[in-house]
Amino acid sequence: MSLDLGMLLVLVLGIGFLAQWLAWRVKLPAILFLLLAGILLGPVAGVVQPDKLLGPLLFPMVSLAVALILFEGSLTLRFSELPGIGGVVRGLVTYGAVVAVLLLAVAAHYLGGLSWEVSLLFGALTCVTGPTVIAPILRTVRPNARIANTLRWEGIVIDPLGALFAVLVYEAIVSHQEGHTIGVFLTVIACGTIIGLLAAWLLAMFLRRQLIPEYLQNFGALVAVLLAFSLSNALSHESGLLAVTVMGIALGNMRDVHIDDILDFKENLTTLLVSVLFILLAARLQWPLPPGVLWAGVAIFIAAQLVVRPVTVIIASAGSTLSWRERALIAWVAPRGIVAAAVSALFALRLDALGTPGAEELVPLVFILIIGTVVLQSATARPLARWLKVAEPDPNGVLIYGSDQVARLLARALADAGFRVIVADEHWEGIRLARMDGLTTFFGHPATAYAERHLDLTGIGRLLAMSPNRERNALACVYYRQEFGRARIYRLKNEAPQDASDRGQLGGHLLAPALFGEDLTHERFAERLAEGWRIKSTRLTQAFDWPHFIEQYGSPTVLLFGVEEKGALRVASVKRELEPRPGWLVIALVPPEAAAPAQA
């Protein structure tokens, strides 16, 4: 079956979307489904043949896509965060990464038969994990906070650092292959660094002085990245990838430069590029793989899983406060992801053009390691965490979207009751006040790509959407319905029943059960607080049960939450009327006139 270029791109885009959607549904890294889709479409079915259909466009397309992926990854690295990520993470991304590179190179050389040059490149490419593969596994495994934070920060920090290291190794190989001296290699490094820093400074200047209108900033940033990549390559051959990596790191660490919108745009663009790129690259693989390559890849995977990662973690965590159980799980979880797959394919194309021995085996070996680590660790990490007793119990924490007075007071009451609470909002003033009140906060909407990378949901199992914006509440509810389950998503109504018309009412699939009752809207809740109502937490007893509570505080009292004796949280909603029992802690909204009887 033959397809023209237009049909090929539509097919790849559609299948890429389906792979991303399936990954979201089953909570596994999307890279697994993208690679499998590419193998099925390419070498197995013969439907997609990228080299034949794209021809001379394949190499520039892969180069530009990898440049944008590296820029987006390096844009998230903050130097200010490095001192606070803990000794174990610092060890994993510094001397631990060097140990991993060397051990992986040894495995690639002796088990895969690669030359030492290509083996070192293989080690540099496969020492990185990354948030796109770590985050889905952490959500399924739900380890304790120490493990989750260590793995999450390792993935975020080592992604751009690993890419930078791989670029440097590649530049050294190219210089040696082409007979260049060390001076030429240093020239490549200097050119890439200078162009990257200059491009970051110029773009930051344009953004600071608002010389680019907001609706063109994402477009301008895209052009700047690709221009820096092309200009650097033109001035010094093969220095472009280093330039965009340095540009991202520099721009991400500049003060007074608003890059959140650019980062969101680049994340969305990266999702598109990754989906297309991985399918096309996997479609170029030979299938079935030559027996020698297949068994070499399996042997390298076993060595990486059972030897390289444990040794790296042992060295990096020496002297830390992590228990042996926590170290064991960290040593087991190290899936490879986007940087390894994308950059290895690009470097393989370039090294193959130079006639470097073993270049054609680089991609299949990397892909075998990616698929092996993702499949094995996704399937076994949760049972291992339970066996090691480092998995979190059923998540009882609460994610509250909204940061006005209503949300903050409810968050404070739940936090005082012993629950982990995160207040998330894109409005800074409310987040600032929540932080001053000692609450854990997340600045941003919880249903964004940025939140997917940086919002730590360890121990969180419920969403209470209670911002004043009805549509944003609905977005959060739909997004977290798959994450927490339909029964653990709630919203505080933004309109009274008599105010809701058929034309303005949201569809039922966008709604979640209303909190606390049909008549208690966000506006009415805020009005009652202004009138002197207060949130009261009381432990019920046999002598002072719920009827006595109502008798003392008045029938207008609104029950908000109940906490059972064993600590389980019960949320009052229109679909679930609570019946508090002795031993429960009740959290209720009580009227101001209840103060007098309470003191009697």
Care to describe what's here?
With 600 residues, the protein is an alpha/beta fold. The protein folds into 2 domains: 5-55 and 87-176 and 263-388; 397-599, NAD(P)-binding Rossmann-like Domain (Rossmann fold). Helix content is 62%, strand content 7%. It contains 24 helices and 9 strands. It has a 5-stranded parallel sheet, with helices on both faces. Strands 6-9-7-8 form a 4-stranded antiparallel sheet, with helices on one face. The longest helix is centred in the N-terminal third of the chain and has 33 residues, at 145-177.
Structure described in brief:
The protein is of the alpha/beta class and 600 residues long. The chain has helices spanning 5-26, 30-44, 50-54, 58-75, 87-93, 95-112, 116-126, 131-141, 145-177, 182-208, 214-235, 240-252, 260-283, 291-316, 324-332, 338-354, 359-388, 405-416, 428-436, 449-454, 470-484, 522-530, 546-553, 595-599; strands at 397-401, 421-425, 440-443, 460-465, 489-491, 534-539, 558-563, 569-571, 585-590. The strands form two sheets. Strands 3-2-1-4-5 form a five-stranded parallel beta sheet, sandwiched between helices. A four-stranded antiparallel beta sheet has the order 6-9-7-8, covered by helices on one side.
